[in-house]
Amino acid sequence: MPLKMPDEILFLSFFYGEKISSYRLAYVFTYVNPSRRDSHPLYVAGIYQIEIVYHVISSNLMTSAFTYHELEKIASAFDLDVGQLLLLETNNLHDVVLVGSRRTIYFSTETSKRPRIKSKISPRSSGTRSFSSILSLIETAIFILATSTLIRVLSEWILLEESLALTRNALTEPTLYSLDEENRRRFPANPAYDVLITLVNPDPEKLKVTWDLRTMTEEYVEPFLSELSILSNFSVKSQWLYLLPLDVNPKRVPDSSPLGRHFALSEDVLPQLITPLEKKLASQVSLRPTINFVIYAVPCDSAPLHVYTRSGHRWKITANVEAFLSPRWGGVVLINPPVEACIAAKPDQPVTIVPEQTTVVGTFLTQLKLLLGIPEPVFIKFSVKFLIYIVVLTCFLLLLSILFSKFLNGVNALSLPGLKLHDWEVDVLLRIRTIEQLTSAKLTLQSLAQLLQEISNIVITDVVGHRIKTALRLVEDSAEQLTHGDLATGFLLSKEAFVTAEAAFSDPTLFALLYFPEDQKYAVYTPLFLPAMVPVLLSLKNIYRYYSGRRTNNL
Amino acid sequence: MIHFKIPLLSFIFITFIKCVSPQNDFFDEELMLKPLPSNHVYAYFQFTTVWETTKDATTFMKCVIKYKYSIIQHSHLFPRGLGEIISRHNVDELHLTLTKGLWHYQKWGYPYHDAGPGAEITTWFHKDVKNVDDEWKGLTNALAGLFCASLNFVNPANSISPEYTFRPTGVVDRSAGVVDSVNSSHLRYSSLPREIVCTENLTPFKKLLPCDSKKGLATLLNSAYIHNTNYHSIGIHFRVICSNTICTKTSLELRQSVSLIYDTVTDVSQDWSIRKFFGMGIRGACPLATLSNIYIDISSNNTNQIYELVPSPSAKIVSLRGGQLNEIAVYDIRSHSSKGIFNIQVLYNTTHTAGLNYPSILYANRYIIGYGQERGSLVTKIYNNYWQTLDIILLESIPWYLPRYLPGKERKSPYYLELILRLPPQSVTKFSIEMDYSFLKWQEYPPDANHGFYMGPAIITALLPIARNYTPLPLDGSTITSSFNASREGYLVQLRTESLLISLPTPDFSMPYNVICLACTAVALAFGPLHNISTKRLVLKRVEMDWKEKLLSFLMKKIVKSKKKQE
């Protein structure tokens, strides 16, 4: 049952169709006769236009697949393009819904099995009848629960319609809509980014950090970013900075550790850590936004350093590494030296820190995903009502608890080795970026038009004019491609449109010398008109006197 | 005329091998203090960063662009800001100096780095660069941002590519079959003599150092002290050098230099110390530096100037170089600063005496003669004090607004002349060029046009046979230590003459507005009577009043002005 989703972003002719609840969407999956092969467009809301294509595959094939690997193998038989999604019904699933690594969602049979209450009722004894009716009731409950889970996975992990709509609205009307957390965190759309990894060693006399940043970027960061090469160009740089101490004084807190103390850094002062670094992070040649990652090695005399929340609790720590993220700026990782090394340290010899590469890189890549706008999958909870319902039922029928074991697992996403990106995650990001870029390009062109209306002196050269036309055409082309469900092409066109529109708007020829200020015109003309106006005004007085005199004469 | 060319140095290597850290780069900081016979003290700081690249020279040369991008993107001690600019614009070699004051070659000898007044920049771009002018523009703009200097005013109209004066000092890619692959079309030189050098240039300069100005010798660079000197010059010198003798490996070398001339004549006592010059003692070495030394040239401490050094140096080196014998006192900062801040004092035992000055064998002067604002003459005088002939290259560059019949184009490129001369022994050579002063377009005048136009210095390049008063490092050396006992066949100098201020005919910029005002007033004055004549008629009207009525009406007029029309 593959679901084809032309990620329609009706851009020029906004389509606000009647919002069919996503609940009904699932019924469409289940109730539509599988033998009907024709495509069935479904309008969910303003942004998406979903086309569903049904396929029937051999049930033997599905029952033979037990492991995720086998499932993935079956799914790979479907040739899925960027932006498409396959919903695959399977029997042997430990979870209700499993989101695969590629563009597949596996859902268990319960989700699709329509409870046939009536057919189950057979002329038997009343005891059996009541049992079967309870059974069917449970089946209904499971069905509703399972379908709602699938719908929520679709809408909260994959489609993210509300988020997309907010992104668009916040760009067009920033005064009316405030950005959500994700929007504030992720970098604005740009065709290229710099990723700068900075290792700060504040006291090289006492602390030695052994790490090959170049190998680290080549082995971990660059392969990760190469998966996003369709999105933007990334260039990874690294540098070492020395003698840059923290600008804040962490509070010394006595504790029971071997060192007898740790240092507390309040969450409120974290922004102040970034400020002194800023002057060493700027680039003189690159115009691209920089995603900063700072590794701050804590020297022994102020170690271990821990971050405390506003409420006074310590952050959860893993392996001497504390990390925080600054929206639209980057991430910071604090590396504490091992306690044993600090105890054994001699005053004239530096302590060596060998950072745990995987932990630090893992933190960075997680932060990078968030900064780029790949949303964190929301943990899907079941509504309390259903849970109570189920709990009550399970109390009665312990036998059936096996059935519910799946619900304890709930939704699962297949985790990938080496923090690789899921294909559907990239698709999500592509959708977000497409809508951002298209809206932004449109707004840029609009403001340029507005500017030209207000200041008529601006000269549009042929180059700029051509850019404006191209940008407009690209916006239209992109929207057209999106209507046809070609997300990849649509995205690339929108990127080009965005870049072209920006280039047209920020062309230096717009600010040419042709601008002649109004006040200078007055400065030139006043010496002529002011003295010449004096006799004219005086004669006006005479005219007035002449007419008023005549009026009195007439009277 | 004899064809004379500085031999192409394609095999340059570091003479001493250092222990290589896992990062493959090292940093050295050095300070040379040299008392001059004229009772000045020459203080020369040099911060050297050498970054050994892992790739061997052949592949490096083949894919220099790709290589530089991949290497420079991951910097350790090498400043990332500068590294990015260098790799972005495919720079093979870069020399940038920001100078205030004029170096007196006659009195002070030859400096470590020759630098003309104001800003001066010389760049060799990689030979694969297609559009050199574009890269040049981008490079100077980026450097302007990095050093807060007006290098963005460098444009093709004040840049030249002389053929003989400048040669690459680093590794040069020798293409197969081509003996001299150096092509001056990839060289750009420009001088901005008007640039004023101050604190805002020093701060970004210090920021490029791995220890910033927090540790090491850079703590001595306090702008209040170093900008009070008779001459100060900061420089950035980047090149590619060989890291081994057969040059299979290359390194990137960055030398950051500060040259200062302190005056000890004006003081009552001749004594000087680090604290007196820089306002503070030395707190300690930069922990990242491999070499952290102070040298004091104590050669003059023998005849009539006797002084003693407090504290006594760690070591003394005798350097014999090209017939010049120098005695150098070496202080290792690490060992001296272990007890805390330390200061080096030079205490004279004798009274105020002038040292013996052995004048430099080659120096030059330049000045303008003529009167009026129509034409003048540019005179360059070159002095040869040596007993033999000297071969020199004279580079005269003249801005485009002083038209001469030399290669160059108005508003496009300056005029320049390179002459290869053989100076007779013990002679003064005078070279003069007549110039016209031209009118510029009104937009081409700078603010305060009556101040005049600066003209960059002439450059005289020579290979001196002896090293008298000669300090520069040998081409194969990176640190000051490499200049000790470094006798070579010739000693390269590139003298800069004075920069000149020329007053071009300058229009009165307020004239158009004055004309507008005057013309408008005249029109208005003419318009008033014309208007009156055409709209008013003169009518005779008799007013009959006796003297009492006249007096009354006069008083009434005075008191009640609003009721004027009572008649």
UniProtKB/TrEMBL annotation, chain A:
Mode of membrane association = Multi-pass membrane protein
Compartment(s) where it occurs, according to its Swiss-Prot or TrEMBL record:
Endoplasmic reticulum membrane
Q: Where does this protein chiefly localize? A: endoplasmic reticulum
- Alphabetically ordered keywords of this record: Endoplasmic reticulum, Glycoprotein, GPI-anchor biosynthesis, Membrane, Transmembrane, Transmembrane helix
The membrane spanning regions, by residue number, are: 386-408
Q: In which pathway does it act?
A: Glycolipid biosynthesis; glycosylphosphatidylinositol-anchor biosynthesis
Q: Name one GO cellular component term.
A: GPI-anchor transamidase complex
GO terms, biological process: attachment of GPI anchor to protein; GPI anchor biosynthetic process
Q: Which domain of life is it from?
A: Eukaryota
**Which first-to-last residue range defines the signal peptide?**
none
- Give the family, as the similarity comment puts it: Belongs to the PIGS family.
Query: This protein is called what?
Result: GPI transamidase component PIG-S
Native organism is Frieseomelitta varia
UniProtKB/TrEMBL annotation, chain B:
Annotated signal sequence is 1-22
Under InterPro entries, the record lists: PIG-T
Membrane spanning stretches:
none
Going by the UniProt record, its keywords in alphabetical order are: Signal
* Record carries keyword Signal: yes
Q: Which GO terms describe its cellular component?
A: GPI-anchor transamidase complex
Q: Which Pfam family, giving just one, matches this sequence?
A: Gpi16
Its GO biological process annotations read: attachment of GPI anchor to protein
The yes or no answer to whether the keyword Phosphoprotein is present is no
Task: Supply the name of the protein.
Answer: GPI transamidase component PIG-T
Which source organism does the UniProt entry give? Frieseomelitta varia
